[in-house]
């Protein structure tokens, strides 16, 4: 493929806008086609129902966004986002026990999804290099099995259609992508697809945090135990803008999720530890419950096709979507944008190579989510990835040993956090350097309760459960 002059990006969400921005740094014109009419502020929209639940941007992805869009993190801070040091500002109950709150090696940006999308979209559009067409949806690809030359689009409100030509078409339409259908219509062979479906469901409410708690109290994660033969139930309390908490309760297939406002707190209290419920009793609910069951892990492998059409790129959730509980989707898309930007900056226009590199960029997030999900009862594993099938037993043994060590060994925890935050490739966990560290890093005592100090407990009017609550953080 020669240097493209014009690109069309299908989808104006997080992934689509990052892809459009990366392209606009190197191409003459970039047009984003978005089905929704996007709000003028940080508001919810119809095409992104999952935006009502907890989101986070890991530091690995945040640094990429800042590199592509200098000043973006300061803009998010000014809008009320919180940078949560992991694990200094995060209290987590893992399947293996409470995580020690070691000094932060990485961080997570916590903010509502509408605010995140709005701040980044506003900055990108202010540069004037991207044209956004709203209320328009793609209905098919133009071209043939050898080359894509554009897309036919339809105006949502009146159904009129037109053909848009382009040198490059990026599918960033998300989990609902019809890419396989569109390609089948052009006689392109089916793309290999892996699915790991743990049947996750989410229920979320927004709360007003007690005075001082939105900034002085840590984020909370109480996770299910995948080792027991019952559905995994989880609870997360994240600080967001305007002194609020976003609280998401979730459960894997077979869990009975809260259906009403009255069911929310009892479900939180039924988790493996009552901490989330105890905290919520001190907060003021601002919304009713929002429910979603969008959460399967799904990955396409376009790089495996012998002849991938020139002029087409699968990107973001259209390429790979993950169980949102791990929080990797936003950062995986940022990784893809960095790869796209790098290829174009170096003048590497061959789309097959770009697609392969973008696909590789999602692999760490993919294997972290799926290798954990397949451990839950009732998980439907339809993947052919050998790391997730019969040959996965040795990997699971190592992962278990790693999980036990990471919550109590500071240097091991630091490396694991580097990998989890997508700041360091997962391959680091297989190096001789790290395997030696696994042997040598001493374990701290096991925590018998949530590691909260007296000042933090006072913010939510709770009393220490024992000596662990008053212990200094490392």
Automatic annotation (TrEMBL):
Which top-rank group of organisms is this from?
Answer: Bacteria
Q: Which Pfam families match?
A: FAD_oxidored
Matching InterPro entries:
FAD/NAD-bd_sf
Question: Which PANTHER family has this protein been placed in?
Answer: THIAMINE THIAZOLE SYNTHASE (PTHR43422)
Q: What is this protein called?
A: FAD-dependent oxidoreductase
Q: Say which species the protein is native to.
A: Phytohabitans houttuyneae
């Amino acid at each position: 493929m020669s240097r493209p002059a014009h690109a069309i990006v299908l989808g104006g969400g997080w992934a689509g806008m990052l892809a459009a921005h990366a392209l606009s740094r190197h191409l003459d014109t970039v047009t984003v086609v978005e089905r929704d009419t996007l709000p003028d502020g940080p508001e919810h929209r119809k095409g992104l129902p999952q935006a009502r639940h907890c989101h986070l941007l890991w530091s690995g992805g945040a640094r990429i966004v800042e590199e592509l869009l200098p000043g973006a993190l300061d803009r998010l801070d000014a809008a009320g986002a919180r940078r949560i040091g992991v694990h200094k500002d995060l209290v987590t109950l893992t399947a293996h026990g409470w995580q020690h709150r070691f000094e932060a090696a990485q961080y997570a940006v916590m903010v509502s999804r509408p605010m995140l999308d709005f701040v980044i979209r506003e900055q990108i559009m202010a540069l004037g290099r991207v044209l956004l067409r709203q209320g328009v949806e793609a209905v098919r690809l133009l071209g043939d099995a050898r080359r894509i030359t554009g897309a036919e689009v339809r105006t949502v409100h009146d159904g009129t259609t037109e053909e848009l030509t382009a040198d490059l078409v990026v599918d960033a339409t998300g989990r609902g992508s019809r890419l396989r259908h569109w390609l089948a219509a052009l006689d392109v062979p089916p793309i290999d697809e892996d699915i790991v479906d743990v049947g996750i469901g989410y229920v979320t409410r927004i709360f007003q945090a007690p005075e001082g708690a939105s900034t002085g109290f840590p984020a909370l994660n109480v996770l299910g135990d995948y080792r027991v033969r019952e559905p995994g139930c989880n609870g997360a309390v994240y600080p967001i803008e305007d002194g609020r908490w976003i609280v998401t309760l979730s459960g894997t297939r077979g869990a009975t999720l809260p259906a009403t406002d009255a069911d929310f707190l009892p479900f939180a209290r039924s988790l493996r530890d009552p901490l989330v419920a105890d905290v919520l009793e001190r907060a003021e609910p601002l919304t009713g419950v929002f429910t979603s069951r969008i959460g399967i892990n799904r990955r396409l492998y376009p790089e495996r096709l012998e002849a991938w059409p020139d002029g087409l790129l699968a990107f973001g959730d259209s390429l790979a979507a993950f169980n949102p509980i791990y929080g990797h989707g936003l950062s995986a898309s940022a990784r893809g944008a960095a790869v796209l930007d790098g290829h174009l900056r170096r003048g590497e226009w061959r789309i097959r190579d770009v697609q392969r590199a973008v696909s590789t960029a999602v692999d760490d997030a993919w294997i972290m989510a799926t290798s954990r999900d397949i451990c839950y009862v009732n998980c439907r594993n339809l993947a052919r990835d050998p790391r997730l099938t019969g040959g996965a037993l040795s990997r699971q043994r190592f992962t278990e040993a790693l999980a036990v060590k990471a919550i109590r060994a500071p240097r091991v925890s630091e490396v694991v956090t580097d990998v989890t935050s997508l700041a360091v490739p997962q391959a680091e966990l297989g190096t001789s350097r790290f395997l030696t560290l696994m042997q040598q890093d001493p374990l701290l005592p096991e925590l018998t309760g949530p590691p909260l100090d007296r000042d933090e407990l006072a913010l939510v009017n709770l009393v220490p459960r024992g000596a662990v609550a008053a212990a200094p953080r490392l």
